[in-house]
Write a structure and sequence with these properties.
This protein is mainly α. It folds into two domains: 1-40, no CATH class; 43-120, Arc Repressor Mutant, subunit A, CATH 1.10.10. Helix content is 64%, strand content 8%. It has helices at residues 3-7, 15-39, 45-57, 64-70, 78-87, 109-129, 134-147; strands at residues 62-63, 91-95, 103-107. It has a three-stranded antiparallel beta sheet. Helix 3 (45-57) packs across helix 5. The radius of gyration is 19 Å and the shape is elongated. It starts with a helix and ends with a helix.
């Protein structure tokens, strides 16, 4: 659906304004789809991101700061997400032996199992969401990277 149809607006201040609104709208559409997808696994998109980061570190531990640095959503409250994942037994939290102020996080076997289950279905989810061919996706990635420079 075109942005104009979705938000019932035909005129924009300029193309750059339309790009900004389009990015916000599109991010919302994708976020809603992700939330629906991950609901089947009883986690949020942000919790999934934390688990993926920990899986990347596995079998080594990671501190909350490292997780926060690598999160896609920099505004997420990593400590709150970690606590929820700990309650679901998808990660373990331990006091660091070297620095008692630091907390070490390790993904559990249950966490790895959840990610393995998600991995089976996630590519289909991504491909259904993407309406772009490979060249279009590469171009869009270049343009989005340029916006973040």
């Amino acid at each position: 659906m075109k942005l104009e149809e979705a938000i019932k607006q035909t005129k924009f201040k300029h193309e750059h304004h339309k790009v900004l609104l389009n990015l916000i709208y599109t991010a919302g559409v994708i976020n809603a789809a992700q939330t629906r997808f991950f609901k089947a696994y009883d986690i949020s998109p942000q919790q999934y991101n934390v688990l993926r980061i920990l899986r990347g570190q596995y079998p080594n531990a990671a501190c909350v700061g490292l997780v926060q640095e690598r999160m896609l959503d920099q505004m997420s409250n990593a400590s709150r997400l970690v606590e929820k994942l700990k309650q679901k037994k998808l990660l373990s939290r331990k006091e660091c032996k070297v620095d008692r102020r630091q907390v070490d996080l390790v993904i559990t076997e249950s966490g790895l199992s959840v990610l393995a289950e998600i991995d089976k279905n996630f590519e289909d989810f991504e491909m259904n969401l993407a309406k772009l061919n490979k060249d279009e996706a590469q171009t869009l990635n270049l343009l989005l990277d340029k916006l973040c420079e």
